Amino acid sequence: MDHHVVVSIVGVDRIPDSGYMRAKVAQEKLIQSAAIPYTIVRATQFFEFIETIIAQFPTDGQTVHLPSAFIQPILTDDVADALIDIILGAPVNGIIDLAGPERFRFEEIIRQFLSATHDSRQVVVDSHARYFGAALNDQLVPQGNSLIGSTHFEDWLNRSIAQRPAMSI
Fold first, then answer.
1. How many domains does the chain have?
2. Is residue 168 part of a domain?
3. Is the pTM value of this prediction over 0.90?
4. Containing domain of residue 151, as a range?
5. Which residue of 22, 72, 116, 128 is surrounded by the most CB atoms within 10 Å?
6. Tens of pLDDT, residues 38-97
7. How many CB atoms lie within 10 A of CB 15?
């Protein structure tokens, strides 16, 4: 049996101000209107992309401006494990949200990451900070029932930092 599986983004349909998110919604609609069984997996942001997430927000010198919105990131290995089960299972002809086990405010998780990586930039909560061109409230966290990964951010961060090459002075 054919089973189309696609990975999308949690909350993608709640962020219409972002062209990128509108394109993801268009992709989902095409899949939903096709004549084959499907499962759309909407995952939250990945731990491994924390540095990329920081780059999405304005930086003024040594200050990173972040919204006060919540984020519930997940380890990519947890996403891969869930995808295996989804691919091998029956199509749901719908959407499954997939998130990490912990919810953070953007400024909280970014401060933790910056501190752990000895990055001296400061974090400021800024209601005007944009993510992929859009203002955020809590669109990036799942609503209702979701699959939840098992890896906690601090565990990933400690492993990630231990694997980074030592900086020479």
1. 1
2. no
3. no
4. 4-163
5. 72
6. 999 999 999 999 988 887 787 888 899 999 899 999 999 999 999 999 999 999 999 999
7. 22
